[in-house]
Amino acid sequence: MSDSRSSLSSRVPIIFKKELREIFRDKRTRMSVIVGPLIITPLMFAVIGKGVQGQMEQVNSEKTTVAVISSASTAGIETELKKTNQFVITKVQSEREVTQLIKDRKVSVGLKIDPEIETHDAMEQPIEITAIVDKGEQSSQIGMGKLFEYFQKEGADKAKRRLQLRGVNPEVITPYKMSEQSIPGGGGRAMLFLVQMLPYILIMASFSGAIYAAFDQVAGEKERGTLETLLVSPASRRDIVLGKFGAVVSVCIISSILSIIGLVIPFKSGLQAFDWIAKGGLTLDPMAMVVVVIVLVPLSVLFAGVLLTLSTFAKNQKEAQTYLGTLFPIVIMPAMFSMFMGAKVALTVALIPVLNASLIIKQALNGNYNWAFIGLAFVASVVYAGIALSFATRMFQNEKVLIKT
Amino acid sequence: MIEVENLSKTFEDKKRGKIEAVKSVSFSCYPGEIFGLLGPNGAGKTTTLRMLSTILTPTSGTARIAGYDIRTQAQEVRSHIGFLTGSASPYERLTAREMVAYFGALYGLSDSEIERRIQEVFTELDMHEFADQRCDKLSTGQKQRVSIARTILHQPPVLFFDEPTNGLDVITARTIIRFIRKCREQGKTVVFSTHIMSEVESICDRIAVIYKGEVAAIGTLEELRAKTGKQVFEEVFLKLVGEEDN
Description:
The structure holds 2 protein chains of 2 kinds. Helices cover 66% and strands 5% of the residues of chain A. Chain A is mainly α. In chain A, strands 2-1-3-4 form a 4-stranded mixed β-sheet, with helices on both faces. Chain B contains 9 helices and 10 strands. In chain B, strand 4 (60-65) and strand 5 form a beta hairpin. The interface between A and B is medium-sized, with 30 and 40 residues.
């Protein structure tokens, strides 16, 4: 028997290093933690962007098909619409016919025009025009927008001409002229997208990135019979659980960080494929990044604790996956919910796990730091993480669970 | 040396109620001896070995392994044993060298000592050829040699073998048996659990026949033959467990 034995406390880093090495040799983990965020996510943006751009170009270049409930008095408007070269007119006799054509996707929009056009025009009264649309159909909505734009411009021009005939300055009907100007260094379209999506993506990346690792750590070891070998080594169960726990937490954090990088690539790469999203620029405050990390660390510990507990409780990885089916919505719902919540929320929301982290990330990306909220959420997350860790450790001491066969 | 005193283990099962897996088992095992635990599947052999290796806590009774109590000095016990089971395979994503070095580190060996022992053990088990291959790429026999290397790297004075030849081909099983004999020659205390009669006949110095969680008899082959008046070991076993007529 050898006498040159190192101290007992050094076993946690030994287990941690070995677990991390094994985790990153697992193809599934490499796919979900590295390949997914760094390659698949940017690629997805490029593909979506190409699709969106293509669709926008098609919509803009395509003429809108309009069914007009035609009469002798509408002929003038029909001719004017045709002249714009933006609309293809189909003449119909009834509203029912219009509805059917829209349903059959033969036209995008229908137009019902006041039959007393000439009388109202002569009396300088508004001519009522109703656009008949299918609100669930994109081309119908776009077509309606084009028609609104056309009639607004035509109406404004006609009003100006009438005023000029009366010798009145046409600007009298435009008391306000409003335009927009972006602040230098402010967020563009990209920022808006990022603020909406990043909290959800980061939380999901942190959670899902560690699933395979956590399940492989205990349930996988039980399945392969290697856990018993580890349990008969001088490493205490506390050493084993802490080493494994540290490895899963690391994977959660690495997964989140790589997800941030994967999301930033489209904005910073300068590649044409990402033009659709990168226009308007992206400004990330370093403080926002610090806050994101502060929030993600305890959240990762919480996730690692929960996943490791599941993994310890399950007989094998398949059983662990079954338990995950119940757990997944509990994580996903608060993360999604944050997308629809405004900037101002009650302080007590900081106590709700996952949602608190999600909201802080969202606020930080907007440059909004509610330190009381961040502080309370951090303390709450640390407490929850501590509970999760203690639960996982206790579960690991339970021989009934550990030697479940 | 191993001294087992009235070791018992009861499991609680929701459906079946209390299950007495091991009932007041006592035996001793000495250095330079191969002590066999013979019994059918479910007899309590693995539960006994799991208690002796401190994976499970006994419901009552205790044991001393190399002078350490399994209840109060669990970590010391684990430092002084090697445990090889037929149901465990090495870590698939580690190489043979990494796997063995990992356990060397867990047993507290220094880096230089791990390196020295790896050289010795890999030579002894003829493992250099596949030392740096990942374990998932190894044959069953090679994997078993990795497990043996892991078990003996820290030179434990006490070794437990729980059905180590389970599912192995004849050639690999022979390697294991040869290795267990060598452990005896080196003066180690060896407990060998199996349900295979021929293995017991071939290598065990003394045998404890375990049946339904209890020790039915302990003795050398000759002693057990004399006790039952039977020569064929299968008949000896059946007589000892009271299943002679079946």
